[in-house]
Design goal:
Layout (H helix, E strand, L loop, with lengths): L1 H5 L3 E5 L6 E3 L6 E5 L6 E5 L6 E3 L8 E5 L3 E3 L6 E5 L3 E4 L6 E6 L4 E4 L6 E3 L6 E3 L6 E3 L6 E3 L6 E3 L6 E3 L15 E3 L5 E4 L7 E3 L5 E4 L6 E4 L6 E3 L14 E4 L4 E3 L6 E3 L6 E3 L6 E3 L6 E3 L6 E4 L4 E3 L7 E5 L5 E3 L5 E4 L6 E3 L7 E3 L6 E3 L6 E2 L8 E3 L6 E3 L6 E3 L7 E3 L6 E3 L14 E3 L6 E3 L5 E3 L6 E3 L6 E3 L15 E3 L6 E3 L6 E3 L6 E3 L6 E3 L6 E5 L7 E2 L7 E5 L6 E3 L6 E4 L10 E3 L6 E3 L6 E3 L6 E3 L6 E3 L6 E4 L5 E3 L8 E4 L10 E3 L6 E4 L9 E3 L6 E4 L6 E3 L6 E3 L6 E3 L6 E4 L5 E3 L8 E4 L3 E2 L6 E4 L17 E2 ...
Parallel strand pairs: 1-3, 2-4, 3-5, 4-6, 6-8, 7-9, 8-10, 9-11, 10-12, 11-13, 12-14, 13-15, 14-16, 15-17, 18-20, 19-21, 20-22, 21-23, 22-24, 23-25, 24-26, 25-27, 26-28, 27-29, 28-30, 29-31, 30-32, 31-33, 32-34, 33-35, 34-36, 35-37, 36-38, 37-39, 38-40, 39-41, 40-42, 41-43, 42-44, 43-45, ...
């Protein structure tokens, strides 16, 4: 299992309650860092754009250092950030962020986003954006670009050729152009238009900065140079306004800033930032970075684009038209489409998302909400579901799918050799959830946890259930479905699991818990592990299976077989039964072993053999032949045609009459000479029963509630008629009678032994009876019954009389 996780290239680092320092710059893997409480510090570089920082509210004042051309968008609850390296970029959040540049001679990019931010540039040519709130922005050295908003009170350019943008129409340190049509030139220019109206601005070949205002603006940044284009706010001071159309060329920064915007990048490496409104963003060349904003957006990338939506919009569509794309959704309900290249879909930050990865080798991350990932569409994909109730389809390719860190997930690996893991569920610290994991065709490895349902379908699959009560299906979820045959390995883990191998020669391991294992067709290896396990054979599929269970009290269950056959229990198994729902009249031969077996047949005329051990044999309906062998065996009869085979000296055996149908025409039953005990166990009987022992020491009991007759004959017998007014005859020997009605009759002749009566009622010893014991009323269902005071009266013999716990009157009389 370790090798599979190594292939994920993912690290998870968790801090302490103190001030922790995390360094992800030396790792070639995607790293998740969680600092918990304390003032934590994180180092992130540009080699792993998928690195994630997780901070809880109230978890201290935290700082992120972005190095090696890194680009990072603040997660929630992160306060401060610094760029230490050329072309580094940081985007803040809604908090009051402190953002600065440690060392970036080639320039850095800082965006405060929300909150009252303090933003400071370095010695290079920096781009500093205040965003919403009362921001303080300081440029530092170099050619800086500073962007504020309505509430920013302190913009300072402390050296270099700076561009300072507030909300007024006055700009410093450059050229101001106003009008309906504005053109830049070949130098580094500042272009701002309009105090209103529908303006058209075209930049020149220089490095231009363009600012729009209210009105339906059309802005072109395509004449050359690395341009920055900003649409304006309209009448809404929060920045939502005009419906703009923006075109870039090589290496632009394009900003929607509000309204229903259409932004089209050019061939350069562009950065696009949307805002509110229904926007369309198109990447038509270069390595673009597109952030859609809060609107209901449609985003199209191409080769090697980075697409993101960090706002609250719904119904967004994000499409990688080609290349290695990175798409990050916002909190809305998003739909994402990839294409043929190696796409990366990162962290759906909320909402119910639908992601189609495309044909490349894709990496998909979900988050909160019911996140739906539909089809990898080809390629070797990695899909992470997140916290929601996820539906993940790997489709073709060798896929790796994670259900995420919560939710009840459904995962289908599709074709290919897939690795599927259900992951965590209902509690925050464990791995659980009620997941449905389908491997599809191919040789899959599927891992669930608590309460999962795992389907391998085609291929040679490995299914591990983990903790909880799991259902594992190697080749489908229907009895007898051999369409997807494969050599599967299923492991249930802890819990009471159901494992189904399907077609092929499978290996099923139940592990801990009381598991049910069904190998299906093929020569399967079954091991239930610890616990009381059940092995299911359907349509004689299990005739050649190998069972190696040595733990617990285990059962083989024969289900839905249309024909008669013979089955012998393995040496380590205890019970053998035909599924009680199977009412077939076919005849089975069921053979136990030297253990104490419970063997139960069907409605046919069956043969049951217990061999050694203290066995219980139940032929059920039909005229059955039962042979217990050595040991103290119990035979359950429900038909007058049932036959018991017992040899002398093979133990102390008991016959249980389960139904009146087991009685003869006179409503009676007589023990064979090699049997010792007899019980009538049908309390619903409507007529008195007649039970006869033999010359052995018999225990004869009736639970009918009628006025029964019990006869012991010779031997030291014990007779109990149960309810009703019963007639008990022990015969010769030292017999014991149990009575519960003053109308019960106990008959003994002179010289027939020393006999004892045990009574729940006041009792007078008749002649030829010697001893009398009063009994306490038994406890029923844990509640003691009120004891009545009963009495004992002897006879003229030498009696031993014993009272119970009540206040008794004991009279010995003569003797």
């Amino acid at each position: 299992m370790a090798n599979n996780f190594d292939n994920l290239n993912t690290n998870v680092l968790t801090g302490t309650l103190g001030a922790d320092v995390f360094d992800a710059t030396q790792s070639g893997a995607v790293t998740y860092m969680a600092g918990l409480t304390g003032n934590d510090v994180y180092y992130i570089d540009g080699n792993n754009t998928g690195d994630e920082v997780i901070e809880l509210a109230g978890g201290g004042t935290d700082t992120i250092f972005v190095v090696n051309n890194g680009y990072y968008i603040f997660a929630a609850n992160v306060e401060n950030g610094s760029v230490d390296g050329n072309d580094g970029a940081i985007s803040g959040n809604e908090l009051n962020n402190v953002l600065n540049v440690v060392s970036a001679p080639g320039g850095a990019w800082l965006w405060g986003y929300g909150g009252n931010d303090k933003i400071t540039g370095g010695s290079g040519d920096d781009s500093l954006y205040g965003g919403y709130g009362n921001d303080t922005i300081t440029g530092g050295g170099g050619y800086d670009q500073l962007y504020g908003d309505l509430w920013d009170t302190d913009l300072g350019g402390l050296g270099g050729n700076d561009v300072i943008t507030g909300t007024s129409t006055t700009k410093e340190d450059g050229d101001d152009l106003y009008g309906d049509v504005a053109y830049g030139d070949t130098s580094a220019s500042i272009v701002q238009y309009g105090v209103g109206g529908n303006d058209n601005i075209k930049t020149g070949t220089g490095i231009d900065t363009v600012y729009g205002d209210a009105g339906d603006n059309i802005e072109y940044g395509g004449r050359g140079g690395n341009d920055t284009i900003n649409t304006d706010t309209g009448t809404n001071p929060y920045g939502y306004g005009s419906d703009d159309e923006v075109y870039g060329d090589s290496g632009e920064y394009l900003n929607g800033r509000g309204g229903n915007d259409t932004i089209n990048t050019g061939k350069g490496n562009d950065h696009v930032f949307g805002d509110a409104g229904d926007s369309i963003y198109g990447g038509f060349g270069g390595n673009d970075t597109i952030n859609a904003g809060d609107g209901d957006n449609t985003v199209y990338g191409d080769a090697r684009d980075e697409l993101g939506a960090f706002g609250d919009g719904n119904g967004g569509y994000y499409g990688g038209i080609g290349g290695n794309d990175k798409i990050t959704t916002g909190s809305g309900d998003d739909i994402i489409y990839g294409d043929v290249a190696d796409d990366i879909y990162g962290g759906a930050r909320g909402g119910n998302d639908n992601i189609t990865a495309g044909a490349g080798d894709d990496l998909v991350y979900g988050d909160s909400g019911q996140t739906i990932y539909a089809y990898g569409r080809g390629g070797n994909d990695t899909i992470n579901g997140g916290d929601g109730d996820d539906v993940l389809y790997g489709d073709a390719g060798d896929d790796i799918s994670f259900g995420g860190y919560g939710g009840n997930d459904t995962i289908n690996g599709g074709n290919g050799n897939d690795f599927i893991y259900g992951d965590s569920g209902d509690d925050n610290s464990g791995y659980g959830g009620n997941d449905r994991l389908d491997g599809g065709a191919g040789d899959d490895r599927i891992y669930g946890d608590s309460g999962d349902e795992l389907d391998g379908f085609g291929g040679n699959d490995t299914l591990l259930g983990g903790a909880g009560n799991d259902k594992l299906y190697g080749d489908g979820d229907v009895y007898g479905n051999n369409e997807y045959g494969g050599k599967d390995t299923l492991s249930g883990g802890a819990g009471n699991d159901f494992l189904y191998g399907g077609g092929g020669n499978d290996t099923l391991n139940g592990d801990a818990g009381n598991d049910r294992l069904y190998g299906g067709s093929g020569v399967d290896k079954l091991n239930g592990g610890t616990g009381n396990d059940t092995y299911i054979y359907v349509n004689a599929d299990g005739a050649n299976d190998i069972i190696t269970d040595t733990g617990g009290i285990d059962t083989v269950e024969l289900s839905y077989d249309p024909a008669s056959f013979t089955y012998t229990l393995g040496a380590s198994l205890e019970h053998l039964v035909v599924d009680p729902q199977n009412t077939t009249s076919d005849d089975f031969t069921l053979i136990g072993n030297t253990l104490s077996n419970n063997i139960a047949a069907s409605d046919g005329d069956d043969i049951l053999r217990g061999l050694g051990g203290n066995d219980t044999l139940d032929g059920r309906n039909g005229s059955d032949t039962m042979e217990g062998g050595t040991g103290n065996d119990t035979y359950i009869l429900d038909n007058t045609g049932d036959v018991i085979v017992e040899l002398s000296g093979q133990g102390t055996d008991t016959v249980v009459l389960d139904d009146e149908l087991a009685l003869d025409s006179n409503n009676g039953y007589t023990l064979a000479s090699t049997l010792e005990n007899l019980t009538f166990a049908d309390p619903a009987a409507n007529d008195p029963v007649y039970l006869f022992g033999n010359a052995a020491n018999n225990i004869i009991i009736s639970y009918s509630g009628e006025d029964d007759r019990l006869v012991g004959f010779a031997g030291n017998d014990s007779l109990d008629g149960g309810g009703g007014d019963d007639w008990l005859v022990g015969g010769t020997g030292n017999d014991t009678y149990t009575v519960d009605s003053t109308d019960d009759i106990v008959s003994e002749l002179t010289g027939e032994g020393t006999d004892t009566v045990k009574s729940y009622v006041t009792w007078f010893l008749d002649a030829n009876l010697e001893h009398l014991t009063l009994l306490d009323v038994p406890v029923i269902n844990g509640s003691p019954t009120v004891q009545a005071d009963i009495d004992a009266i002897g006879n003229d013999a030498n009696n031993n009389i014993t009272g119970n716990s009540g206040d008794n009157v004991i009279v010995g009389r003569g003797g």
